[in-house]
Amino acid sequence: xxxxxxxxxxxxxxxxxxxxxxxxxxxxxxxxxxxxxxxxxxxxxxxxxxxxxxxxxxxxxxxxxxxxxxxxxxxxxxxxxxxxxxxxxxxxxxxxxxxxxxxxxxxxxxxxxxxxxxxxxxxxxxxxxxxxxxxxxxxxxxxxxxxxxxxxxxxxxxxxxxxxxxxxxxxxxxxxxxxxxxxxxxxxxxxxxxxxxxxxxxxxxxxxxxxxxxxxxxxxxxxxxxxxxxxxxxxxxxxxxxxxxxxxxxxxxxxxxxxxxxxxxxxxxxxxxxxxxxxxxxxxxxxxxxxxxxxxxxxxxxxxxxxxxxxxxxxxxxxxxxxxxxxxxxxxxxxxxxxxxxxxxxxxxxxxxxxxxxxxxxxxxxxxxxxxxxxxxxxxxxxxxxxxxxxxxxxxxxxxxxxxxxxxxxxxxxxxxxxxxxxxxxxxxxxxxxxxxxxxxxxxxxxxxxxxxxxxxxxxxxxxxxxxxxxxxxxxxxxxxxxxxxxxxxxxxxxxxxxxxxxxxxxxxxxxxxxxxxxxxxxxxxxxxxxxxxxxxxxxxxxxxxxxxxxxxxxxxxxxxxxxxxxxxxxxxxxxxxxxxxxxxxxxxxxxxxxxxxxxxxxxxxxxxxxxxxxxxxxxxxxxxxxxxxxxxxxxxxxxxxxxxxxxxxxxxxxxxxxxxxxxxxxxxxxxxxxxxxxx
Length: 680
Description:
Helix content: 40-55%
Largest sheet: 5 strands, mixed
Strand content: 5-15%
Strand order of the largest sheet: 1-3-2-4-5
Shape: globular
Structural class: alpha+beta
Radius of gyration: 26 Å
Number of helices: 24
Number of strands: 19
Distance between the termini: 66 Å
């Protein structure tokens, strides 16, 4: 069978379509030129390797000779991996929403030869069903519309272009200040908590997503103001997610989202970015509650990442993390993960431990999902005694050994700089909190790979696979990797991480900053030109680059004393403050950054690295639940910058000494770890 142009790509998702009879192009000038030359509209199809419905549409339509022939006759067909090209995906997802439709994947958009959208949808079946028209009908109708009513199509193009411009033009704020008061943070958190499902956890109804940024805002606000309703919302969510079917109770790690309202049945794909953010949430919650369930899930999830998500890179620079695991194996969603009761009995026997396991993990002959069993502890969320938990663990290990012999789901092993940054920061923080040096080693190794192998001429690139770097880095790559660099500095004391973060800030200040409107654009000024240059502080499944970089700039200001970092963080928050007052739901990451900027507590420990007293003070600092702390270990013979609030402060009586500084005010010298705990 002849292969189409996608055979030249590196993305596993695009390679999945290399044998389609569709004459696919990758996104680029060749496709646009062909559309102009042939006067055909572009059919843009956007998906990703772990997407179940992307696979369904591929099997039903893109592998069908008749439908493919129709596509080839009427359109220039372009396939995009949304993980490789988030810049393209975000534009056309928003265009679809402006057309009054729900976004999602697979995204199916119809564009002019210049790449301007005029109609679209998501999944289309091969014939009319689910209340959706059949894809062949859609192909014919849109082609006829383009040929016979092009004026109307171009009216839609113009309207969408205006709408897209408005989406990415933040509302200005009149008057002085241009910031966000912390009382606004408090009000937003309280309002969001009212929408939480306090029985099952999570926000809204099915399908339910983890929504890490929302949970983070609630948790931060609880720690600062003591509102127990905010605390309870987060703890219920984390407990229910961690004991539901969305969590892999055998191998570790969380699936993308739940298809129901009580976290039983996930879409089974696992994404690096979800797990990184949930590790952060669990770590923060454990610092306050010492809940052993949260500590266990952190450990299991990180160990899953180290066991199954290290990208196959044979490089001395380091070991980065891969992107995703598919929902499907052998063409069936969830097949790798589910069990029959008979299978479990055959593996475990019919003794008392098996009965206990089936009871706790909701296993029955009838099953709990499409005739099979998704292991979950929804009905038994509380941990049992140590003996019983040990028995359950032994059973789980036996089942995992058998599961590992099944045909595995597809693995997207490309390395994405932004997603690696999220996991590096989460792993570095958890390593210090839970005293796991090998987690810190892994975080440093992944960071080294991105820094040393994913840059050209001092600029990050977005994606790496099979020895090839691809695509100009969007803002999120710099934001998440700079955040990771600061996290590694805190964890190691190595100032080279701060130097690297500062160099990346220089790049985005030069190539991404909007000098006219404030805030950072998503793409660089010298990146491939698209129909619009987007700029937003809205979180999606991952936090907004503008929010992440605002918090990181604040931390760099407190670390270095350099005022221009604070000013830039304030400019970002001010840029989006008007939007935040109108539509706060997607901007919770910005509110979190706002809190860091206004309330950061600098913990400065002056002491030798090999002094047990230094380690004791640092241990207290890491385990304290304060989420706005910034930890610096300073050797006794190193002076802090003059504009640092702790400048000139040193050891008390030659002993390791801590100071807690808020603003320009520092505490008295603290030698006793208990005193430092109380200060934090």
